[in-house]
Amino acid sequence: MGRFILISTREHDLAASDEVRGVLDASGLDADALRVIRLEREPLGSLDGLGLEDCPGIILGGSPFNASDHPSTKSATQLRCEADLSRLLDVLVAEDFPFLGACYGVGTLGTHQGGRVDTHFGEPVGTSRIRLTDQGRRDPLLAGLPEEFDAFVGHKEAVSELPESAVLLADSAACPVQMFRVKSNLYATQFHPELDPAGLAQRIMIYRDAGYFPPQDAQRLHDEAMAALVEWPALILRNFVRRYGAES
């Protein structure tokens, strides 16, 4: 079996390394079965160099970037990352290639497919009660999950209008698009399937000045994260690896 690819756009090294840990722990992959690309460090280059023919699937991690920000406010790094991801998604969507984007994946895949991504349905850092739709209950990536479960969230933007090409798989009371699928094999979640309590607590302290919450709330949110019981979302990553790893 070839290696899965995790694409990261996190400039903070500690956040990026813990994202790798979270993906490995949640998916059950060994470290040598995951290739990590730090896209914020260097351009993606030729897609031929990715070795997609031997790759079972691509995972896109979360990001401090917001797809819906006005282009004039985006850094050169963000604009380059977005251009690279759009170019990659051109190929992945055309080939119905296995893809799972977490949080930033909703904005990236949603924008690529013509959905509306804006700040109307942002959620504060913490837990959100996720509800599967009828389509979600039948989707193989959600096999074994209950119809409702808690997941970690924290995002400034969300999909407010689903792309015509997408199938809604999950929602929540505060955010109408928590997970969707394009074609048969491309998925995006607004919540974080890779996060455990320690991972969220660490990100809270790393991004305490990034505008997700008042900085003075960081310690309280950290403590609430550590006390949270969030266990089901990791199964999505395990299902992704089992489904596409077995097919490669």
From TrEMBL:
Annotated Pfam families: GATase
Keywords on record: Ligase
PROSITE patterns cross-referenced by the UniProt entry: GATASE_TYPE_1 (PS51273)
Domain Glutamine amidotransferase stretches: 52-197
GO MF term (any one): GMP synthase (glutamine-hydrolyzing) activity
InterPro entries: ChyE-like (IPR044992), Class_I_gatase-like (IPR029062), GATASE (IPR017926)
Enzyme Commission code: 6.3.5.2
Full protein name: GMP synthase (Glutamine-hydrolyzing)
